[in-house]
Design brief:
about 230 residues; alpha+beta; Heat Shock Protein 90; 5 strands; elongated
Length: about 230
């Protein structure tokens, strides 16, 4: 009788522990989601400040340099001003790239398809897109954008690719993001913080991320994210 009572007590304790464990898992998932949301909001604020303040002021300065070129007397003076303008153009391009990497406003306002088109304009490698036109939840769009952005940056730096294909399609309750290139392959998904950060972002939304990169056969990165975005 005592053995039966002890077994029942252990079973009840185990059940309580399972309930507590599940509650902790849910709490952890919600905490990860809140951290992700807060990070996206802060990146959005930084992007807006860069665009509304820094870029605008530099653009005003560039316009002033253009006027000075037109009014300058002497070729040497005009050349010096033109060099300053060209350096300013490079700085504006760099700031624009930083803003895109933070959290592009076009993603919030125009959606994923438009944001990826803007991103592609900054790349030298030709990119073919197949992107669902329908808007998706903001967290899903942000995750898909940063998956594509990180993959494209890695391709530009390391892959020596001549073409890239990006697809973002909806398959039932799933969003599938695929970035493929015809470059050198051999990428190690365990190296670098970029892919680890993407994996965390995707897994926080209940999804998964995989990289296939055999040497000499290009690289394929696939992320699958449920549209309901349940935090894990």
């Amino acid at each position: 009788m005592e053995a039966v009572s002890s077994a029942a007590h252990l079973a009840a304790s185990n059940a309580r522990l399972q309930v507590e464990l599940q509650r902790r898992v849910v709490e952890l998932g919600e905490s990860r989601r809140r951290i992700l949301e807060a990070g996206d909001e802060e990146r959005g604020r930084l992007e807006r400040r860069l665009e509304e303040r820094t870029e605008r002021r530099l653009q005003d300065l560039r316009d002033a340099l253009e006027r000075d070129i037109a009014l300058a007397s002497g070729d040497a003076t005009r050349e010096r001003i033109a060099r300053a303008r060209d350096q300013l153009d490079q700085a504006l391009d760099e700031i624009h790239g930083i803003a895109l990497g933070l959290h592009p406003r076009v993603l919030s306002e125009g959606g994923l398809k438009e944001a990826l088109a803007v991103l592609a304009e900054t790349l030298e490698t030709p990119v073919t897109f197949e992107v669902a036109a329908d808007r998706m939840p903001a967290q899903i769009e942000a995750a898909a954008y940063f998956v594509c952005s990180e993959a494209l940056v890695n391709i530009a730096k390391h892959a020596s690719a001549s073409s890239v294909r990006v697809s973002v399609i909806r398959d039932g309750n799933l969003v599938r993001v695929v970035v493929e290139d015809d470059g050198t392959g051999g990428a190690d998904p365990n190296r670098g913080s970029g892919l680890r950060g993407l994996t965390d972002r995707v897994e926080t939304l209940g999804g998964s991320l995989q990289v296939e990169s055999a040497p000499g056969q290009g690289t394929s990165l696939t992320a699958e994210i449920p549209l309901d975005g349940e935090a894990h």
